Amino acid sequence: MTLRVLIDTNVLISYLLQPDTLGAAQAVLRAFLEERFTLLVPGALLQELLVTGRGKRRLVKRIPPADLTTFIAVLEEFGEAVGEITEPIPMVTRDPKNDYLLAYALVGEADYIVTGDKDLLELQGQITGLEILTPAQFIDMLA
To answer: What's residue 86's pLDDT?
Structure first.
């Protein structure tokens, strides 16, 4: 059985900021490219990645637009698309902007959410069948 994983935008941005380093975010993306898990790729997550990468001045200066476009294309090509959720998404986290990740993780039957977001990490162990881990915890689990 292949692990099914949803990676939060903050981890993807961390990777894009320093793709050639040996950090935990980079290790997670390397594991994906080595096909050690199935990456779930909801359209809403790709949209958030695009808006964040192009919309925050400090990121625009550090992430070339072509790199962002190529990265999104790789995620789309090698990840597994998750169908759009059309119903209202219930509010679960302190930050409602995170609720869509939980919803897509459940719809996509994810085993893990990998995130650096404290609001999501505080839900560790509270959602049946779904683990929420930091990139470092996820890499340790894969080892």
So the answer is: 84
- Picking from 32, 21, 5, 17, the residue whose alpha carbon sits closest to that of residue 115 is 5
Q: Is the pTM of this model over 0.90?
A: yes
Q: Which residues of the chain have pLDDT under 50?
A: none
Are the CB atoms for 37 and 31 separated by under 8 Å?
A: yes
129: left (phi over 0), alpha (psi -120 to 50) or beta: left
Q: Which tokens in the block code for residue 33?
A: 């490219």
| Distance from C-alpha of 103 to C-alpha of 106, rounded to nearest angstrom | 5
Alpha-carbon torsion 82, 143, 29, 17, what sign?
positive
Q: What is the 3-state secondary structure (H, E, C) of 58-117?
A: HHHCCCCHHHHHHHHHHHHHHCEEECCCCCCCCCCCCCHHHHHHHHHHHHCCCCEEECCC
Tell how many helices (H) and how many strands (E) occur in the chain.
Answer: 8, 5
